[in-house]
Amino acid sequence: MGRVEGKVAFITGAARGQGRSHAIRLAEEGADIIAVDICADIDTVGYPLARPEDLEETAQYVEKAGRKAIIAQADVRDAAALKAALDNGVAELGHLDIVVAQAGIAAMKGAPAMQAWTDGINTNFVGTINAIQVALPHLKEGASIIATASAAALMDASKKDRPGADPGGMGYMTSKRLISQYVHDLATELAVRSIRANVIHPTNCNTDMLQSEPMYRSFRPDLEKPTRADAELAFGVQQAMPVPYIEPEDITNAVLWLASDESRFVTGMQLRVDAGGYLKWYDYHV
């Protein structure tokens, strides 16, 4: 028996990267998958987003693992579209046990600047709310909600040397902090119903978001056209352990644990998978 045998998981941002990794591993451990992704670019995001064929490929991996995959192209900013995709999947698969609100962007292209802020907040924070709240009517005792925030949510951003210089970048940090607070409060309300809700905070993760020109420029502002090799020299500043980034599978391991009954009494947690990044920012406290 797999660790999530017979369960159904709803995953946003499932076409590639962390979302695809989660879908494949949960399927390998016995879950059927409802997978959604926007499968289109957003103007303020300076790297290509997933394509329809990426989402189809995720489904093929799930089916290769012997599980069912229901896929839909849906923008997490559109609650109605997300609800329709999820309701269709639940009608097909019969129930819903796991929610992985994974979809997220780094809107760092910079022009128009405040649209980057808006797109980041609406995708990362409002999109997480939408994914969770369209799922709530389907969830019963024993269900698990997992939201992806970021180690960026835990960093001290009180010193703003250049206010207004990067609204998209600040919007990313803000959206991830808001996810943390939202899920904390939601977990409190759901605990009496024996439904769990937790947040995972990844550090730099080896996905298309990190391996992109805007992110290279963010880490190496001293260079006009930094390469991946240039940026990787600076990626390590985020972590206490001597690594430039972690892999999607490292996050998936945490997702699987939180989705499984192994963590049946774990709720309201802010789980850092950050290679010690938090240790560089904060002193010990309970």
From TrEMBL:
Gene3D superfamilies found in the cross-reference section: NAD(P)-binding Rossmann-like Domain (3.40.50.720)
Homology family: Belongs to the short-chain dehydrogenases/reductases (SDR) family.
Alphabetical list of SUPFAM superfamilies matching this protein: NAD(P)-binding Rossmann-fold domains
Matching PANTHER family: 3-OXOACYL-[ACYL-CARRIER-PROTEIN] REDUCTASE, SHORT-CHAIN DEHYDROGENASES/REDUCTASES FAMILY MEMBER
GO molecular function, one term: oxidoreductase activity, acting on the CH-OH group of donors, NAD or NADP as acceptor
Entry protein name: Mycofactocin-coupled SDR family oxidoreductase
Keywords from the named record: NAD, Oxidoreductase
InterPro entries in UniProt: NAD(P)-bd_dom_sf, SDR_fam, SDR_subfam_1
